[in-house]
Amino acid sequence: xxxxxVAKRALLVxxxxxxxxxxxxxxxxxxxxxxxxxxxxxxxxxxxxxxxxLTPLSIIWGxxxxxxxxxxxxxxxxxxxxxxxxxxxxxxxxxxxxxxEWLDRTVLFLTIVASVLGSLATDLxxxxxxxxxxxxxxxxPGDTTKD
Length: 147
Hints:
Layout: H1 3-65, H2 73-97, H3 105-128
Helix pairs in contact: 1-2, 1-3
């Protein structure tokens, strides 16, 4: 599996996990505090998905910038720059949404926490099941390679 394939799979599985979180949280939010709870859950899931989706996209973009080398400055710049943007967007979103009266802040917070935990679990499972080699350019005894 290539890095791009792992990142795309993480994005697709992340979409599914975030959709499930959005459905469950909006239903629970609607039961707890009606429309403001449902809106808080949907906004929280949307913010969680935006933050989740930027990670695999930054890896794909950084891999292309680094021309396939994950140790290149282009790769690190793309990934770390995107993480910085995610942090700023998260803080701006939390401060702006914290003052809004049209949503339930508690449901929003719990949904964001669930989305973050879901995205971490998603990334962990996808990377663990990716079967990426730990090393490259190594010939093991018994390998038949053509030089």
